[in-house]
Amino acid sequence: MRLFLRFSPCWNGTAMDGKADFYGPLLYSPWLLWLGVGLAALLTGWFLFVFLSTRRTQAPANHLLPAPDLNALQKDFLERINKVAADADIGRLPARQAHQELSLLVRIFVQSASGVAAPRMTLAELQEKGPPPLATAIARLYPGEFAAHPQESPAAAAEIAREVVRSWS
User: Fold this and answer.
1) What is the separation, in whole angstroms, between the first and last Cα of the chain?
2) Which 8-state DSSP code applies to residue 31?
3) Which domain, by its residues, includes 109?
4) CA 82, chain centre distance (Å)
5) Is residue 15 a part of any domain in this protein?
6) CA distances from 105 to 53, 151, 162 (A)
7) How far apart are CA 21 and CA 75, in angstroms?
8) pTM above 0.90, yes or no
């Protein structure tokens, strides 16, 4: 049995009468063009709004914070350090936690007094860019915070913290 292929008489693109039956592209309505342009503008506007509204604004130079009263700041932080030392002495705070709180208090004091973001800095960053008294004090407090057993007592760590606060000028 053989298969026979039958071809249409217009397989070459011509109709039976010999004329080509090509049609031009269909035209779209003009309102579809304006709808597309409007949607593109809306989308661009949205991205611009999101981009501009999430940028940080820089504070003008005349809105600088006033310098803190250093004597009041020192008095406040010395009281806080004394409270942590007293809590550690009576056993309310473990030695490691006392070292950690003292380190944080000293860092917050330096940030309040000078504006240096000390609570966010590692010891290496403090030694590279931070105030030398703070870097030295934090280096001495680190073993008490992170070693298996604190090498200095909480009272000695409190004295290190007090010295940083007292000597700050």
Assistant:
1) 109
2) H
3) 68-167
4) 33
5) no
6) 36, 20, 10
7) 97
8) no
User: Can you tell me the distance from the alpha carbon of 62 to that of 65, in angstroms, rounded to the nearest whole number?
Assistant: 9
- Which amino acid appears at position 37 of this protein? V
Please give the tally of structural domains in the chain. Answer: 1
**Residue-by-residue DSSP string for 64-106:** PPPPP-HHHHHHHHHHHHHHHHHHHHTTSS-HHHHHHHHHHHH
Asked, for residue 17, whether it belongs to a domain, the answer is: no
> pLDDT tens digit string along 55-94?
877 655 555 556 678 999 999 999 999 999 999 999 999 9
Question: Is 93 within the bounds of a domain?
Answer: yes
61 within domain boundaries: no
Do 16 and 9 meet the contact criterion of CB atoms below 8 Å apart? Answer: yes
Question: What does the block give as tokens for 21?
Answer: 């039956």
